[in-house]
Here is the input.
Amino acid sequence: MSVHQKVKKVTTHVLQEMKNAGEKIAMLTGYDFTMARIIDGAGIDVILVGDSASNVMAGHETTLPITLDQMIYHASSVVRGVDRALVVVDMPFGSYQGNSKEALSSAIRIMKESGAHSVKLEGGREILESVTRILTAGIPVMGHLGLTPQSIYKFGTYIVRAREDDEAEQLIKDAKALEEAGCFAIVLEKIPAELATRVAKEVSIPIIGIGAGGGVDGQVLVVHDMLGINNEFSPRFLRKYHNLFQEMTNSFHSYIEDVRSGDFPNDKEQY
Ligand code: KIV
Here is the structure.
Protein backbone atom coordinates (compact mmCIF):
# COMPACT_ATOMS: atom_id res chain seq x y z
CA MET A 1 0.00 0.00 0.00
CA SER A 2 1.35 3.47 -0.83
CA VAL A 3 2.10 6.04 1.88
CA HIS A 4 -0.87 8.31 1.05
CA GLN A 5 -3.29 5.35 1.18
CA LYS A 6 -2.06 4.31 4.61
CA VAL A 7 -2.47 7.59 6.47
CA LYS A 8 -5.63 8.93 8.11
CA LYS A 9 -4.04 12.34 8.64
CA VAL A 10 -1.35 13.98 6.52
CA THR A 11 1.53 15.47 8.51
CA THR A 12 4.79 17.05 7.43
CA HIS A 13 6.44 13.67 8.15
CA VAL A 14 4.02 11.93 5.79
CA LEU A 15 4.99 14.36 3.02
CA GLN A 16 8.66 13.52 3.59
CA GLU A 17 7.84 9.79 3.48
CA MET A 18 5.98 10.37 0.22
CA LYS A 19 9.01 12.08 -1.30
CA ASN A 20 11.30 9.29 -0.05
CA ALA A 21 8.99 6.70 -1.60
CA GLY A 22 8.78 8.62 -4.90
CA GLU A 23 5.05 9.36 -4.43
CA LYS A 24 3.81 12.68 -5.81
CA ILE A 25 2.11 15.13 -3.46
CA ALA A 26 -1.20 16.73 -4.55
CA MET A 27 -1.92 20.20 -3.17
CA LEU A 28 -4.67 22.74 -3.95
CA THR A 29 -5.61 26.09 -2.54
CA GLY A 30 -8.77 26.47 -0.45
CA TYR A 31 -10.30 29.50 1.19
CA ASP A 32 -13.63 28.41 2.67
CA PHE A 33 -15.34 25.59 4.56
CA THR A 34 -17.48 24.18 1.74
CA MET A 35 -14.68 23.92 -0.81
CA ALA A 36 -12.25 22.56 1.80
CA ARG A 37 -14.75 19.82 2.68
CA ILE A 38 -15.00 18.75 -0.98
CA ILE A 39 -11.26 18.91 -1.65
CA ASP A 40 -10.39 17.06 1.56
CA GLY A 41 -13.07 14.44 0.91
CA ALA A 42 -11.55 13.85 -2.53
CA GLY A 43 -8.27 12.90 -0.85
CA ILE A 44 -5.97 15.88 -1.38
CA ASP A 45 -2.72 15.77 0.61
CA VAL A 46 -2.28 19.48 1.33
CA ILE A 47 -4.66 22.46 1.32
CA LEU A 48 -2.96 25.82 1.01
CA VAL A 49 -4.90 28.77 2.35
CA GLY A 50 -3.12 30.96 -0.15
CA ASP A 51 -2.88 34.71 -0.03
CA SER A 52 -4.25 34.33 -3.58
CA ALA A 53 -7.51 34.74 -1.60
CA SER A 54 -6.70 38.41 -2.07
CA ASN A 55 -7.28 37.98 -5.83
CA VAL A 56 -9.74 35.10 -5.95
CA MET A 57 -12.01 35.89 -3.01
CA ALA A 58 -11.62 39.65 -2.59
CA GLY A 59 -10.99 40.77 -6.19
CA HIS A 60 -7.74 42.62 -5.54
CA GLU A 61 -5.23 42.90 -8.37
CA THR A 62 -2.35 41.58 -6.23
CA THR A 63 -1.85 39.50 -3.07
CA LEU A 64 -0.56 42.52 -1.14
CA PRO A 65 -3.78 43.94 0.39
CA ILE A 66 -4.97 40.84 2.28
CA THR A 67 -4.51 41.20 6.04
CA LEU A 68 -3.47 38.79 8.78
CA ASP A 69 -7.01 38.90 10.24
CA GLN A 70 -8.50 38.04 6.83
CA MET A 71 -6.05 35.15 6.34
CA ILE A 72 -6.97 33.82 9.79
CA TYR A 73 -10.68 34.03 8.89
CA HIS A 74 -10.12 32.02 5.67
CA ALA A 75 -7.82 29.54 7.42
CA SER A 76 -10.21 28.83 10.30
CA SER A 77 -13.04 28.22 7.79
CA VAL A 78 -10.83 25.74 5.90
CA VAL A 79 -9.68 23.96 9.07
CA ARG A 80 -13.31 23.31 10.05
CA GLY A 81 -13.83 21.51 6.72
CA VAL A 82 -10.76 19.28 6.88
CA ASP A 83 -10.32 15.80 8.38
CA ARG A 84 -7.25 14.48 6.58
CA ALA A 85 -5.23 17.08 4.68
CA LEU A 86 -2.35 19.13 6.04
CA VAL A 87 -3.43 22.79 6.14
CA VAL A 88 -0.76 25.37 5.25
CA VAL A 89 -1.49 29.08 5.63
CA ASP A 90 0.25 31.85 3.71
CA MET A 91 1.67 34.55 5.93
CA PRO A 92 0.38 37.73 4.26
CA PHE A 93 2.50 40.60 3.00
CA GLY A 94 3.60 42.81 5.88
CA SER A 95 3.16 40.17 8.57
CA TYR A 96 6.74 38.85 8.59
CA GLN A 97 9.08 41.08 6.59
CA GLY A 98 9.66 43.66 9.35
CA ASN A 99 11.65 41.53 11.79
CA SER A 100 11.72 38.00 13.15
CA LYS A 101 9.84 38.90 16.35
CA GLU A 102 6.94 40.28 14.34
CA ALA A 103 7.11 37.22 12.06
CA LEU A 104 6.87 34.88 15.04
CA SER A 105 3.91 36.69 16.59
CA SER A 106 2.07 36.63 13.21
CA ALA A 107 2.77 32.89 12.84
CA ILE A 108 1.59 32.23 16.40
CA ARG A 109 -1.65 34.13 15.74
CA ILE A 110 -2.29 32.01 12.63
CA MET A 111 -1.68 28.76 14.51
CA LYS A 112 -3.66 29.73 17.64
CA GLU A 113 -6.62 31.44 16.00
CA SER A 114 -7.13 29.23 12.93
CA GLY A 115 -6.08 25.77 14.12
CA ALA A 116 -4.00 25.30 10.96
CA HIS A 117 -0.96 23.03 10.89
CA SER A 118 1.77 25.17 9.31
CA VAL A 119 2.64 28.45 7.60
CA LYS A 120 4.22 29.47 4.29
CA LEU A 121 6.53 32.44 3.72
CA GLU A 122 7.85 33.86 0.45
CA GLY A 123 11.58 34.40 0.05
CA GLY A 124 15.05 32.99 0.70
CA ARG A 125 18.07 34.37 2.53
CA GLU A 126 16.33 37.69 3.30
CA ILE A 127 13.74 35.99 5.53
CA LEU A 128 15.91 33.22 6.96
CA GLU A 129 16.06 34.74 10.44
CA SER A 130 12.25 34.86 10.59
CA VAL A 131 11.95 31.31 9.27
CA THR A 132 14.37 30.07 11.95
CA ARG A 133 12.56 31.89 14.74
CA ILE A 134 9.17 30.52 13.69
CA LEU A 135 10.61 27.00 13.45
CA THR A 136 12.17 27.35 16.87
CA ALA A 137 8.67 27.90 18.28
CA GLY A 138 7.65 24.51 16.86
CA ILE A 139 5.68 25.84 13.90
CA PRO A 140 6.31 23.95 10.63
CA VAL A 141 7.32 26.25 7.77
CA MET A 142 6.93 25.81 4.01
CA GLY A 143 9.18 27.99 1.83
CA HIS A 144 8.24 29.65 -1.47
CA LEU A 145 10.82 30.59 -4.12
CA GLY A 146 10.86 31.60 -7.79
CA LEU A 147 7.98 33.88 -8.67
CA THR A 148 6.95 35.31 -5.31
CA PRO A 149 3.79 37.38 -5.91
CA GLN A 150 4.23 39.50 -2.77
CA SER A 151 7.29 41.03 -4.52
CA ILE A 152 5.44 41.78 -7.76
CA TYR A 153 6.29 45.49 -7.61
CA LYS A 154 9.99 44.59 -7.39
CA PHE A 155 9.81 42.13 -10.33
CA GLY A 156 7.44 44.31 -12.37
CA THR A 157 5.86 41.31 -14.15
CA TYR A 158 4.58 37.77 -13.58
CA ILE A 159 6.97 36.22 -16.16
CA VAL A 160 9.03 33.07 -15.57
CA ARG A 161 11.78 33.63 -12.98
CA ALA A 162 15.37 32.35 -12.74
CA ARG A 163 16.00 31.89 -16.48
CA GLU A 164 19.41 33.53 -16.04
CA ASP A 165 22.28 31.58 -14.43
CA ASP A 166 22.84 34.07 -11.59
CA GLU A 167 19.24 33.96 -10.43
CA ALA A 168 19.09 30.18 -10.87
CA GLU A 169 22.21 29.65 -8.73
CA GLN A 170 20.84 31.98 -6.06
CA LEU A 171 17.54 30.07 -6.06
CA ILE A 172 19.39 26.78 -5.47
CA LYS A 173 21.34 28.36 -2.60
CA ASP A 174 18.10 29.71 -1.11
CA ALA A 175 16.41 26.29 -1.37
CA LYS A 176 19.35 24.66 0.41
CA ALA A 177 19.33 27.36 3.09
CA LEU A 178 15.59 26.84 3.71
CA GLU A 179 16.14 23.09 3.92
CA GLU A 180 19.02 23.56 6.37
CA ALA A 181 16.94 25.95 8.48
CA GLY A 182 14.36 23.17 8.88
CA CYS A 183 11.54 23.94 6.40
CA PHE A 184 9.43 20.85 5.69
CA ALA A 185 8.80 21.66 2.00
CA ILE A 186 9.26 24.40 -0.60
CA VAL A 187 6.92 25.72 -3.31
CA LEU A 188 8.69 26.65 -6.55
CA GLU A 189 6.58 28.96 -8.69
CA LYS A 190 7.02 29.63 -12.41
CA ILE A 191 10.64 28.67 -13.01
CA PRO A 192 12.20 26.53 -15.78
CA ALA A 193 11.38 22.82 -15.37
CA GLU A 194 15.03 21.83 -15.62
CA LEU A 195 15.99 24.07 -12.70
CA ALA A 196 13.07 22.85 -10.57
CA THR A 197 14.03 19.23 -11.25
CA ARG A 198 17.58 19.99 -10.15
CA VAL A 199 16.35 21.56 -6.91
CA ALA A 200 14.11 18.55 -6.21
CA LYS A 201 17.14 16.28 -6.66
CA GLU A 202 19.60 18.36 -4.64
CA VAL A 203 17.29 19.13 -1.74
CA SER A 204 15.94 16.30 0.41
CA ILE A 205 12.64 17.96 1.49
CA PRO A 206 9.55 17.85 -0.79
CA ILE A 207 9.47 20.39 -3.62
CA ILE A 208 5.98 21.39 -4.77
CA GLY A 209 5.75 23.07 -8.17
CA ILE A 210 3.37 25.47 -9.85
CA GLY A 211 4.53 26.19 -13.38
CA ALA A 212 7.76 24.36 -12.56
CA GLY A 213 7.33 21.17 -14.61
CA GLY A 214 6.87 17.53 -13.67
CA GLY A 215 10.30 16.75 -12.23
CA VAL A 216 9.38 17.92 -8.73
CA ASP A 217 7.76 16.05 -5.82
CA GLY A 218 4.25 17.46 -6.11
CA GLN A 219 2.00 20.06 -7.71
CA VAL A 220 -0.20 22.89 -6.49
CA LEU A 221 -2.88 24.85 -8.34
CA VAL A 222 -5.35 27.55 -7.35
CA VAL A 223 -8.65 25.69 -7.05
CA HIS A 224 -10.71 28.32 -8.87
CA ASP A 225 -8.27 28.20 -11.79
CA MET A 226 -8.25 24.40 -12.17
CA LEU A 227 -12.05 24.28 -11.97
CA GLY A 228 -12.27 26.93 -14.69
CA ILE A 229 -14.33 29.26 -12.49
CA ASN A 230 -11.92 32.05 -13.33
CA ASN A 231 -12.11 32.48 -17.11
CA GLU A 232 -9.70 35.42 -17.24
CA PHE A 233 -6.56 33.41 -16.37
CA SER A 234 -5.09 30.79 -18.72
CA PRO A 235 -1.30 30.52 -18.26
CA ARG A 236 0.50 27.66 -19.99
CA PHE A 237 1.05 25.74 -16.75
CA LEU A 238 -2.65 25.62 -15.85
CA ARG A 239 -4.68 22.49 -16.58
CA LYS A 240 -8.41 23.26 -16.41
CA TYR A 241 -10.44 20.24 -15.27
CA HIS A 242 -13.78 21.93 -15.90
CA ASN A 243 -15.38 25.01 -17.37
CA LEU A 244 -17.33 25.92 -14.26
CA PHE A 245 -17.51 29.54 -15.37
CA GLN A 246 -19.77 28.45 -18.25
CA GLU A 247 -21.67 25.85 -16.24
CA MET A 248 -22.37 28.27 -13.41
CA THR A 249 -23.40 31.00 -15.83
CA ASN A 250 -25.82 28.56 -17.51
CA SER A 251 -27.30 27.62 -14.10
CA PHE A 252 -27.74 31.27 -13.13
CA HIS A 253 -29.43 32.00 -16.49
CA SER A 254 -31.84 29.08 -15.92
CA TYR A 255 -32.64 30.23 -12.37
CA ILE A 256 -33.28 33.83 -13.43
CA GLU A 257 -35.53 32.61 -16.25
CA ASP A 258 -37.44 30.25 -13.92
CA VAL A 259 -38.04 33.00 -11.34
CA ARG A 260 -39.10 35.53 -13.96
CA SER A 261 -41.46 33.09 -15.68
CA GLY A 262 -43.00 31.94 -12.38
CA ASP A 263 -41.85 28.34 -13.04
CA PHE A 264 -39.88 28.35 -9.74
CA PRO A 265 -41.08 27.40 -7.19
CA ASN A 266 -43.59 24.79 -8.38
CA ASP A 267 -46.19 22.97 -6.25
CA LYS A 268 -43.64 20.45 -4.95
CA GLU A 269 -41.17 23.15 -3.96
CA GLN A 270 -43.39 24.81 -1.38
CA TYR A 271 -45.03 24.02 2.00
O1 KIV B 1 -1.28 32.04 -2.73
C1 KIV B 1 -1.22 31.04 -3.45
O2 KIV B 1 -2.21 30.55 -4.01
C2 KIV B 1 0.10 30.43 -3.65
C3 KIV B 1 0.20 29.34 -4.66
C4 KIV B 1 0.11 29.88 -6.02
C5 KIV B 1 1.42 28.52 -4.46
O3 KIV B 1 1.04 30.81 -3.02
